[in-house]
Amino acid sequence: MKYTIFSDVQGNYQALNRFFEKTEDSTDQYLCLGDIVQDGVSFEDNRCIEIIRDYDCISVKGNHEEKVLRNHQKSIKRIFAGNLSYIENLPLEKEVENKYNLKHLIFNEKNPNLDKINQEFSKFKPSIKISFFGHTHKPIVYSQNNKNLVKEEKFMTNHLRLNENLKYLINPGGVGLNWNQLKTYIQF
Questions:
Q1: Rounded to an integer, what distance in angstroms lies between the CA atom of residue 52 and that of residue 161?
Q2: Apex 55 CA angle, 54 and 58, nearest 5
Q3: How far is 10 from 177, CA to CA, in rounded Å?
């Protein structure tokens, strides 16, 4: 199965639509790492949820979905009830194929320290080798070897060569924020 992983749409329907047009012929399943919406007071947020649902994306809840749900009185004016229910029922974390873990929020800061990175690696179940995350809008890869040494790599392409002996934390960046600047998704 060929996955396409993306994050942080931030209610940018135009960018999300272009993203799907570009990737749909080369994707079996989409994995969305959250922040589909921006603030829930725009019809664009509603349209983003609709297209995520139309493409049957496996998704997790981001902090922006949480914000929209807390602001229900304003959100209900722009986001259809079924779409609010959809984001309300998204999990904070999801396993795929018992190999991959999806989360939105791992680090609040854009440059986490080594201790925080190692803490996240220590949470991996034995079957998990890769955890995908969003939130920081920064395409980055952290790898850890069997001696707990961490390496950081920035990447500017959607193709990564991974070593099966390492564990990985991978952030593809933000589709809604940087679509014209770089490829903000990963396919494998």
A1: 28
A2: 115
A3: 7
Helix, strand, coil abundance in the chain, percent, nearest 5: 30, 20, 50
Kindly state the tokens that stand for 86: 């959809």
If you compute the radius of gyration of the chain from its CA atoms, what whole number of angstroms results? 16
Q: What average pLDDT does the segment 166-174 reach?
A: 93
Q: 166: Cβ–Cβ under 8 A, 6 or more apart, which residues?
A: 129, 143, 144, 145
- 157 has pLDDT over 80: no
- Residue 183: pLDDT band (50, 70, 90) is low
- Are 134 and 34 in contact by the 8 Å Cβ rule? The answer is yes
The pTM of the full predicted model, rounded to 2 decimals, is 0.92
For the sheet with 3-6, list strands across it. 58-59, 29-32, 3-6, 186-187
Q: Contact 38/11 with Cβ under 8 angstroms? A: yes
Helix-then-strand count for the chain, H and E = 7, 10
Identify which of 36, 69, 22, 56 has the alpha carbon closest to the alpha carbon of residue 174.
Answer: 36
Tell me what the mean pLDDT of segment 141-153 comes to.
92
Query: How close are the terminal C-alpha atoms of the chain, in Å?
Result: 8
